[in-house]
Amino acid sequence: LAGVREDLGPARVVVVASRSHRLSPALPEGPLESLPTERMLEPSWPSLVPVLRDLRLYGLSKLCNVLFARELARRWGPDVLAVSLHPGSSISTSGGGESAALVKLWMRLASPFTKSVAQGASTAVFAAVAAGLPNGAYLSDCTVSHDVHPDAEDPGKAAALWD
User: Fold this and answer.
1) Among the options 26, 48, 58, 130, which is catalytic?
2) What InterPro entries does this protein map onto (predicted)?
3) How far is it, in rounded angstroms, from Cα 95 to Cα 107?
4) Range of the domain at 83
């Protein structure tokens, strides 16, 4: 990216994260060469229900997306605007097999609280074209959001993840 960035001039990087990044366990202090994901979960919930464990691991991956965007903004700004975003929750028609009935029930119950595909894309489009966004911002519902995991505010953790 560095060579392309120099050739093209100002650029924008939009990283799709998720509000679920707030479900992540706290990141360990120090170097993050290899995130010890299983050990990170144990102190919180020793006998974690698999679906909850998976949600926390998903949250960890999305927290890393937020941190990546913030560190990219710090290292490459001001010529590169880097933001991360929560696209919103939307209903997927994927799923089936043995759980098809459960998927249909979930879709019916959750639909009043979710976004259409177009609504879900709106924050990503906003992030790609809006003027005046702060570098490193986290966006939700087409606006800058400060409702982030505490580690997302830690420049040291963003740098450690990058390194």
Assistant:
1) 58
2) NAD(P)-bd_dom_sf
3) 11
4) 2-162
